[in-house]
Amino acid sequence: MAGMPEQKESFNVEEVFQRVVPTYDRLNHLFTLNIDRRWRKRLVKRSEVRPSSRVLDVCTGTADVAIALARRFRGVSVDAIDLSEAMIEVARSKVRRAGLSDSITVAPGDALGIPFADRSFDVVCNSFGLRTLSDPARGVREMARVARVGGRVLILEFAPPPEGLLGSLYAWYLRSFMPALGGLLSGYRTSYSYLYESVSAFLKPAELLEIMRTAGLREVGSERLSGGIAYLYVGSR
Questions:
Q1: Scanning 38, 126, 132, 152, which has its CA 20 to 30 A from the CA of 211?
Q2: CA nearest 185: which of 61, 27, 13?
Q3: Mean pLDDT in the chain?
Q4: What are the beta bridge partners of residue 42?
Q5: Which candidate, 144, 132, 148, 123, places its Cα nearest to that of 46?
Q6: CA–CA distance, 210 with 203 (Å, rounded to integer)
Q7: Alpha-carbon distance values, 202 to 10, 12, 138, 168, 230 (Å)
Q8: Count of other CB atoms within 10 angstroms of residue 47
């Protein structure tokens, strides 16, 4: 997640996520009807991780993807970074409860200045964190920088509401329904209003694909998920 150096102008992103940490996982699954679990499983499947791979999970949040990768690919080494201290605390607790402390290391880390050397990882992924950055293109460049030659970079992210009836319903859901229910259940309506703001203003799929190519990634492509609500972007170093 983003910290103060990465905040959007209208929201303090660190504060947004700090507030909702106690209900973060539960409400994520509720609001997506657990479809978010399927999206993350798709990322894991497309990662092509091997047992000896070194993986970096950027903007790990509560470490759902890091845990899913370590569970599926025994022997893999996962570094999971985030700037939110509250998220890191929850992520570490979840990793311990999953019995994966030997496989996953959770630590503070800035997505706009990833604290690892060039070409350090076989797989680099980011799930729903890119749109929180003040400079998504820089975030993609950093992910490409730390990927080894032949390594994979995967980005799972929401897209602006698509055209048509589905897009209109989705925009209403994000703009009105989710903030109302999220505010009721968490006590912080503003934090859920941020989701609509960040999704509607985010890059279109074609724009993000071009950013990935400009960052030096090849074999770049995207997979449309749930009617265009989210996309999985994949590229190779």
A1: 38
A2: 27
A3: 86
A4: none
A5: 123
A6: 10
A7: 14, 17, 14, 16, 12
A8: 23
- The predicted-structure confidence for 115-138, as pLDDT tens digits, reads as follows 999 999 999 999 999 998 999 999
Which residues have C-beta within 8 Å of that of residue 176, sequence separation ≥ 6? none
Sequence-ordered list of residues with C-beta below 8 angstroms from that of 174, at least 6 positions apart, any chain: 161, 195, 196, 199, 200
Is the CATH number 3.40.50.150 carried by domain 35-161+203-236? yes
Task: Concatenate the DSSP letters of all residues of 55-80 into one string.
Answer: EEEET-TTTHHHHHHHHHSTT-EEEE
Q: What is the dihedral of CA 113, 221, 27, 161, to 10 degrees?
A: 110
Measured from the Cβ of residue 222, the count of other Cβ atoms closer than 10 Å reads 18
Q: Is the pLDDT at 143 greater than 50, yes or no?
A: yes
pLDDT band at 18 (very low <50, low <70, confident <90, very high): low
Domain segments of the chain: what residues?
35-161+203-236
